[in-house]
Amino acid sequence: MTDITIHYSYIIIIILLAIGLYGMLGKRNLIKKCIGLTIFQTAIFLFFIEGGLKDGGTVPVIDPSLGVEAINYINPLPHVMILTAIVVSTATTGVAMALLLKIYRKYNSLEEDVIMERMKE
Amino acid sequence: MKNFAKIVIAAFAAILIYATSGLPIPGDPEAPVSGHISEFYIENSMEDTNTPNVVTSVLADYRGFDTMGETLVIFTASLACMLILIKRSADD
Amino acid sequence: MIKRYNSIIVDVTCRIMVPFIQLFGLYVIFHGHYSPGGGFQGGVLLATSIIVHRLCMGYKESYAKFPPQRAYMIGAIGMFLFVLTALTPVFFGGAFLDFSFLPIPRLEPAELRYYGILIAEIWIGIAVFGSLLVIFDKLTERRGG
Q1: pTM of the full predicted structure?
Q2: Do A59 and C36 lie within an 8 Å CB cutoff?
Q3: Which side of chain C, N or C, has fewer Cβ within a 10 Å radius?
Q4: Count of Cβ atoms closer than 10 Å to residue C127 Cβ
């Protein structure tokens, strides 16, 4: 194994992925599961943006004094994909909150084992 | 359930940390991801469309289909919210 | 169903802040060519201004100034006009969203694509504003009796 500590930024992102996954699997409240999903999605956005950096590059807005050389600007394609992904994540969270409201009005609780018991009656 | 979840997540994190040894060094200008197509967009964005911001010109001009799909997604989400929380007279 | 917040400091601050948030949202949409921004970010800022007004002033006063039915129509009109503007070059022989084929006399192809991107971003901003406001209003609606 080559020197792993040179990729320290990717290791921090993997710790965030593990925190989000524990929130989805290990907690019993339904809103805590939604928060775990949001943490997982945010860690994936950070991973994409981290992969598109360049040493000594600047914001991808073309400056007349720097010309149109591609080595002076960071990669614009991950930013475009993440803009779309952020909007999709917001839409998913909105629909999830509407479904949780409907579940609460019918069963009067938000813990998953209490809901499973009340569903059997 | 919580102990089983902790074991699974520890194994998942260990496999991913082992896999990061194959990724290129962050900040390398010769990485294969900033190769062919993103150089084309940076060099030709100012003469095709008179726009200094490369991200806007890629999002709205070169890849306009994806923007239309995304606007359709958020509009469908608002329609779904309206239909889930509709008031009927026979229900609660 | 949101009740009015009973404090005069919150009242005055909200009345001052709402037009400035809307002005900043319009600035972010129109300057998408020269600085980071564009249609989606400006649409979210415009929706935030109305949500702040609903949280601070209560539902009676806020529903009288900006009724929820207006938000549904604005979102649908923005989406429809975006698809109509994007299909216009197909009638003149070009590809989808390729504005250099329109036969307007005095402009070059690069200028035509510049104005085409600007108009498309405006319709996207209005569609996102309408959709986010509909989601917020449906989640905080009165339970009907």
Answers
A1: 0.89
A2: yes
A3: C
A4: 28
